[in-house]
Design brief:
The chain is mainly β. About 5% of the residues lie in helices and about 55% in strands.
């Protein structure tokens, strides 16, 4: 509640400053507002009743402009859900962006609260891990809405024609947020098998690192263009956005669960090129320190391994008003131990089919994500109608299937249909 009061104070404070006479005369201001409403329904377990999962309204206010040689952007959002089944908070005020831009001696700076997007993949994230996510709707919410912004300092340094180096320092630490217990998309977190029943069980809150300059995160990105290829090389020294769940068992059989956030060094890159009607997208990530559940009590039921992830995507637009996009995601543990609970290799395929009609005012699309190893997946058909430049209607569905122990299959009984409308002004 205190956080909301702080956000409300900041919102009205920014509003008073931006719309003060002195500020208006000294700057060029652009204001874009949008109201988005979505209602999602699902069938109850007995399939004879319909349950309203959410009836949520979102007000977005995007304010940008310049004061002298300094640009600024503020993206403020207010959310209210009548149903309150996907989040323990029925209402929320947040600032997606609140930063300033300026140039100094050939370096382009951005300071303040911001979201930073890396990578070339769609639907699932590899390099796009700088900002944590809010998983209150699993991965169904658009990443633009679910990313959690961070206070950061970014310097973009041109090196030569077509090349640049970006240095990002992130002093603010935030972590992934998940659906609360009892809500629609609560994740399953099974404990490893114990050799005997515990005499007691204590689950402690995650131990977060202190907010300090020493604990800041550092990101580097080199971007260049060569022989038709858009290429990036990426480095990120950071804390994992999910805690490592250590489990301790004492001599009496008492069990305590002690989540902690651990550091990781990520290196990766992207390479994209267009070949006629085809666009080839590639992306890879090497995580030096990933942590996995095991059945070994001598290691606090956790083992560490290096992890390689990559994706190869191919987009085809050779048919008028049509996009066909396929991706192959692969994750592989490079130092695999047999007692690790997860598979050494996982493969996921995605397919996006999109077709435009009536001068692109109507869009039909279907996105499928399928795990080859767990035989589970998600199908997301969607219909969009752009009534005019300001009003748009949407109708979509989220259909889960497969093994209930899988990433997607755990929600196999929670298919839903969503209808939405957005109005810009």
């Amino acid at each position: 509640m205190l956080k909301n009061y702080k956000n409300i104070s900041l919102y009205f404070g920014c509003t008073l400053v931006i719309f003060s006479p002195q500020f208006l005369y000294a700057s060029e201001i652009s204001v874009a507002n949008q109201i988005v409403h979505e209602t999602s329904v699902t069938q109850k377990e007995n399939f004879d009743e319909v349950d309203i999962v959410k009836s949520e309204s979102l007000l977005k206010s995007d304010i940008s402009g310049e004061v002298g040689q300094v640009g600024f952007k503020i993206d403020a959002r207010f959310r209210y859900d009548l149903e309150d089944q996907i989040d323990s908070r029925q209402s929320e005020i947040q600032f997606r962006d609140a930063f300033i831009d300026f140039e100094n001696q050939g370096t382009y700076w951005r300071l303040g609260k911001q979201t930073i997007v890396w990578g070339a993949s769609d639907g699932l994230r590899l390099l796009d891990v700088i900002n944590p996510l809010n998983y209150r709707e699993f991965i169904l919410d658009d990443f633009d809405n679910s990313r959690i912004s961070l206070t950061s300092a970014s310097a973009d340094i041109p090196i030569s024609d077509g090349s640049s180096l970006t240095i990002i320092v992130i002093p603010e630490l935030k972590f992934n947020q998940y659906a609360k217990t009892g809500t629609q998309f609560e994740l399953s977190h099974p404990l490893p098998e114990l050799s005997q029943m515990p005499t007691s069980l204590q689950i402690n809150s995650a131990k977060e690192p202190q907010q300090s300059l020493h604990n800041s995160e550092l990101a580097l990105r080199y971007a260049t263009f060569a022989s038709g290829w858009d290429i990036t090389l990426n480095y990120f020294y950071h804390y994992h956005d999910d805690p490592v769940v250590f489990i301790d068992v004492d001599g009496s059989g008492a069990v305590s669960v002690n989540p902690e956030y651990k550091r990781n060094t990520l290196v990766g890159g992207t390479a994209n090129n267009a070949f006629g009607d085809f666009v080839l997208r590639t992306e890879f990530v090497l995580n030096n320190s990933r942590y996995y559940s095991t059945d070994n009590p001598n290691q606090r039921f956790i083992d560490k391994a290096q992890e390689l992830q990559y994706v190869i995507g191919l987009d085809y637009s050779g048919i008028s008003d049509t996009l066909i996009s396929g991706q192959w995601f692969r994750r592989q543990l490079l130092s695999y131990e047999k007692d690790i609970a997860e598979d050494a290799i996982e493969n996921t395929l995605t397919l996006l089919l999109r077709r435009y009609y009536a001068n692109q005012t109507i869009t039909l699309e279907a996105l499928t994500l399928h795990s080859l190893d767990n035989s589970d997946g998600l199908i997301r058909p969607k219909f969009k109608y752009e009534f005019n430049n300001f009003v748009q209607f949407e109708l979509g569905a989220d259909i889960f299937y497969g093994n209930q122990s899988g990433f997607f299959g755990q929600f196999a009984a929670k298919d839903q249909v969503t209808v939405g409308v957005s109005v810009g002004f």
